[in-house]
Design goal:
This protein is an alpha/beta fold. It has two domains: 1-50, no CATH class; 53-141, Rossmann fold, CATH 3.40.50. It is built from four helices and five strands, in the order αβαββαβαβ. It has a three-stranded parallel sheet with strand order 3-4-5, with helices on one face. A two-stranded parallel ribbon has the order 1-2. It is globular, with a radius of gyration of 16 Å. The model has no long low-confidence stretch (mean pLDDT 93).
């Protein structure tokens, strides 16, 4: 919600997803066009992506993979207005370096199933971007 408040002051048209109806109502009250999405089924309403130009993905992958990718990758690709996708990942994909430095050129060495799922999700979105000609960036936080 904090990001939506900040972007709203810049005149952005904000869309988003949330897992429960109470949160959806709060987002709608802020002027955010919000859809319900708990990762088990496509978002409702499905037309929230109509006309968007940028998509920022922050949902972590679960045991079954990245729910946003599974349910909406092709819908995002079919949305002609989309020209950029960002995926929020984790520095956990670098593994334990015992205090050593890492940067975006460092080898990925995930040391937990959770980090391995993040690597899989990163690769899926980057490959998706290449296939569809849509600029796609990964941010490791």
């Amino acid at each position: 919600m904090a990001l939506s408040r900040r972007l709203d002051t810049g005149g952005w048209d904000i869309r988003g997803t949330c897992r429960d109806a109470g949160r959806q109502r709060a987002l709608l009250a802020l002027g955010v066009r919000a859809a319900l999405f708990d990762g088990t089924a496509p978002m409702d309403p499905p037309d929230v992506l109509d006309g968007v130009t940028h998509v920022l993905l922050s949902i972590p992958p679960g045991d079954g993979g990245d729910p946003a990718y599974q349910h909406h990758a092709e819908q995002i690709a079919a949305t002609e207005s989309v020209n950029w996708v960002g995926y929020l990942s984790t520095t956990g994909v670098y593994g334990n370096r015992d205090g050593g430095w890492v940067d975006e050129t460092s080898d990925l060495r995930p040391s937990s199933p959770r980090s391995e799922r993040r690597v899989d999700a990163e690769r899926a979105w980057l490959d998706w971007g290449d296939r569809h000609g849509i600029a796609t960036q990964v941010f490791r936080l």
